[in-house]
Each structure stands twice: as structure tokens, then as C-alpha cells.
Amino acid sequence: xxxxxxxxxxxxxxxxxxxxxxxxxxxxxxxxxxxxxxxxxxxxxxxxxxxxxxxxxxxxxxxxxxxxxxxxxxxxxxxxxxxxxxxxxxxxxxxxxxxxxxxxxxxxxxxxxxxxxxxxxxxxxxxxxxxxxxxxxxxxxxxxxxxxxxxxxxxxxxxxxxxxxxxxxxxxxxxxxxxxxxxxxxxxxxxxxxxxxxxxxxxxxxxxxxxxxxxxxxxxxxxxxxxxxxxxxxxxxxxxxxxxxxxxxxxxxxxxxxxxxxxxxxxxxxxxxxxxxxxxxxxxxxxxxxxxxxxxxxxxxxxxxxxxxxxxxxxxxxxxxxxxxxxxxxxxxxxxxxxxxxxxxxxxxxxxxxxxxxxxxxxxxxxxxxxxxxxxxxxxxxxxxxxxxxxxxxxxxxx
Length: 399
Hints:
- The chain has about 400 residues and is mostly helical.
- It has helices at about 5-40, 45-70, 80-90, 95-110, 115-155, 160-185, 195-225, 230-245, 255-270, 280-305, 315-340, 360-365, 370-380.
- Mean pLDDT is about 80; it is low at about 345-365 and about 385-399.
- Keywords: Apoptosis, Cell membrane, Membrane, Transmembrane, Transmembrane helix.
């Protein structure tokens, strides 16, 4: 049974609250783990946890600040003074500011008996940016933190209670980000009956099942060769960065900030697939999958030859077969998704995000988050004979 409009608004508001709480709980778990490492004299582990937190936070603030500076404001949705925004992002509070702003707008819309089109569109506009930032935070901080704590457990042969808390919060954060990102892409897409709850669940499952084995083998390599994992990451990251550059991404407002996006996408590609360009998606996804699979197999071979170094060898004997089963199941679900569940109808304009050149003047005065719409256009296919939509060079925000 379809949801009523007010129920949908309430659902989105509750999801926004839960997403913000999940982020804060995950942050608290990481800080708790770092404090426990310090108290137990494991200063290197604490420094690594804090370094990952710091680098990811700086990247998120940069993305948020650049987007806010480039977006066009409106009398109905004014932006705070630049000094206040700069101070918030300097204090690493830009993302939380966006979460609070999104919740306030969602609550405003929900309280209205007949929400205005602008308020609904502006709420979607804010939530789409939050979803994108949450996805970046997941692969810049949560996934590396999960890899780090697994490497520590594999190297030490035991797990403390706060490490299990960190693992659980990381999995919740990753799961939530994947689901929220898919929901955000769906918001940018016009009504397509082929995309439903089942498609979203399958999309989430194949992403998580393919991500888990990758995280495990990288954690395994980190536990075996802690001095070389940085070189391994840097080598693959440079390859992915070059690959993303070859695809000619045009996501950020300027050429310099575009490199920040490319560097972030290269980090995502180290763990999982992320589409950044139109055309030949299946071929690029296959190349990326084969590349990561070969790299992961090499890391498993390294464990097979050097497993005596780890005190958790028996644990690995059960984890690695389980990871192999997860990979095969995730691959099967991915094939099933793209064969039968992935929307394949043509793009049509909608109220918030769509074909801006064909929208009426009233619709063009609504907030339009073209960043996420651009990614949704890459994610959901369209017919080959469809004309290219006017995108490049247009300004994100309220026209």
C-alpha cells in the first residue's frame, strides 16, 4: 500500500534523525576506542584512529564549504553569513550544521498541512547533499576504521569489548550510508515502477557482501605487513585516480576542487565500485571488479605463505571461506540486480531534479540539487538515442 504524503514526510524526518544519531554514535565509538588505546599504552593505534578521523573530517568540511559557496541562495532559503559558515567548517562542524539544517527544514515541512513546493524541494535539496557527504564519510573514515580495527584484532589474536562496539557501529554506518545513498539517487529519478523496496534491498546487499571480503583481505594484509599497507594503498589509489581523471569527471564547481572529488572517488574505488561517468558502465564495472578481485587474491596468497606470523590463524581459516561465500553471493545478487531490477526506462523531468532545459519557469525557481542528479543520471541508464541534457556549466541551487 502506498504511503500517504504526511507519512512519507514523517518517515524522511525519522530517517534523518536516525542517520545523524548513527553518525554521532560511530564518532563516539571511534573516540572511545582511541582513548582505550591510549590508556593501554598503544599510542600508534590511537594515533591511526585519530588520523583517519581528522583526514576524513577535513575532506567533509572542504566538500561542504565548496558546495555552500557555489550554490545560489534565495530569499526563501538564505544562507548564513560567510564568516559564520567559515567558522563552523573550521571547527569541523560543517557536516553537523547541514544535518541540523536538514532536520529543521524537514520538521518545517512536516508541520505544514499543505507543504509548499519550494519547502519540499528545499528539504530534498538539503537531504541530497547530506546523503552525498555521508557516503564520502563512510569510505574516507568508517570503512578504513573498520579495516584498522580488524587488522588490530588479527594481529593481536583477541578482541576487546570496545573493538566489538567499533565494528558494530562501523557496519551500521556503512549500511546506513549505502541505503541512504540509494534512496537519494531514487529521489533524483522520476517515477519508475521498476525500482521498489526489493530493488533497494538487493542493491544494499550486493554492495555490502562485496565490500566485506575486500575489507577483510585489506585488514589481513595490514596485519601481516603493516609497513607496506600504505604503499599498497598509495599505488592502487594513484591508478584509480588516473582512471577517474581519464573519465573526465565534472562534479565540482571548479577545476581545482574537482581534484578533491577525484581523490575521494579513488579512495572509494579502492574498496568498492562507484560510477562517475555515463556510457559503458558495464565494461568499467567489470574491469574494476576483475582488478579488485585479482588484488584481493594476491593478498590472500600473501596470508597463505605468511600465516604463521599471525596468532589468529585459526580464526582466519573460518573467516576467509566465509568471505569467499559472501563475495560469490554478492556477485550473484549484483548480476540479478542489473539484469532484472535496475531501472532502464528513459529519463523524464520531475519537479525537483530532471531535465532543466524543459522545465517550466515555476519549476526552475525550485531548488535543484544537480550534483546528485548528475550522479543519478550516471547510475540509471537511458536510451542511446536520447539527447544529452543541458548540464555542464549550469549553477547548482535556486535559479
